[in-house]
Amino acid sequence: MIEALILAGSLALVQTSDDCSPRVENAVAIWWLRPLELAPGASASLAAYWMDRPNSLERAPRHCVTNIAFSPEGIVALEADGVSARVMDDAPSAALVTITGRIGDQSLEAQIRVVRPEDAPLRGSWRQAIATCSEGVVPEPIEELVFNATGGFSVTWTPFEVYKDYWGSYRFDPAYQSFSAEVEDGNQRPANLDLAGTASLVGNELILEDVWFGDPTRIAAGGGRCTYRFVRTGTFVQAPPISS
User: Fold this and answer.
1) What is the C-alpha to C-alpha distance for residues 50 and 57, in angstroms, rounded to an integer?
2) 18 and 103 in contact (C-beta within 8 Å)?
3) What is the CATH number for 148?
4) Beta bridge pairs of residue 168
5) What single string gives the DSSP state of each residue in the chain?
6) What distance in Å separates the CA atoms of residue 151 and residue 181, rounded to the nearest whole number?
7) Which terminus of the chain is more exposed, N or C, with fewer CB under 10 A?
8) CATH classification of the domain holding 57
């Protein structure tokens, strides 16, 4: 796995005249770390990066990425610009495509999972617009709530690169609007979370009722029951959420 190649350590600059070689010793070439979820017709950049440690990325020149191939074929194709991948309109849902390539003397590998919107209605990233809670509590706004198509979620109050406050798994039944989530781990996990309630979608708005996502400014305090309104900010999702 690519994750196993991420090395921590001090920066060691390499003297090189080749702009397709990393400037830092032991840097690993990557596209992205986890399967990227895309709907049919959607595209993703194949810009590559050098990573020498978590959260330390340097973008490689576009011309350095070569020998791009897709397996299986016929589901994802290279765009005319030569640096983007597009999911075919008739791509089957849940198909997993492996992308390979090269940058300098290193190989690249990543995956795209095809996800049709109707199969995972909550999938995407969301930002809290407002929250109304019992007892007049006003929680810190959640800047990034992410759901993926394979049942993973993450909560982040102040997004920074791949950092997440906490993450886990979720269930959503559109027919009954029932929602529940279970936290598996986190960097900052408030006490007294209550993640079982209802969820409804209206256009690009998500309403979560009778839940409590916590508050980083009141880490040990409960907040009773709240109604959160979120607005969709994107649909490019890595699954499961990256833990860091």
Assistant:
1) 6
2) no
3) 2.40.128.490
4) 153, 183
5) -GGGG-------B---S-TTS-SBTT-EEES-SSPEEE-TT-EEE---EEEEETTEEEEPPGGGEEEEEEESTTSEEE-TTSSEEEE-TTPPTT-EEEEEEEETTEEEEEEEEE--GGG-TT-EEEEEEEEEEGGG--PPP-SEEEE-TTSEEEEESS--TT--SEEEEEEEETTTTEEEEEEEEESS--SS-B-EEEEEEETTEEEEEEEB---GGGTT-----EEEEEEEEE--EESSPPP-
6) 9
7) N
8) 2.60.40
Flag the least confident range among 121-130, 147-156, 173-182, 232-241.
232-241
Match 């190989």 to its residue by tokens.
107
Rounded Cα–Cα distance for residues 69 and 73 (Å): 8
Q: Which domain holds residue 142?
A: 120-238
Q: And the tokens for 54?
A: 């978590």
Does residue 198 form part of some domain?
Answer: yes
Q: What are the angstrom distances between the C-alpha of 79 and each of 68, 74, 75, 97, 114?
A: 11, 13, 13, 16, 17
Q: Express each pLDDT in 84-111 by its tens digit.
A: 999 999 999 999 999 999 998 899 999 9
Q: What is the pTM of this model?
A: 0.72
Number of Cβ within a 10 Å radius of residue 161: 10
Q: Which of 196, 242, 198 is nearest to 55 (CA)?
A: 242
Judgement on whether residues 64 and 94 belong to the same structural domain of the protein: yes
Same domain, yes or no, for 32 and 65? yes
> Does 67 or 192 have the greater pLDDT score?
67
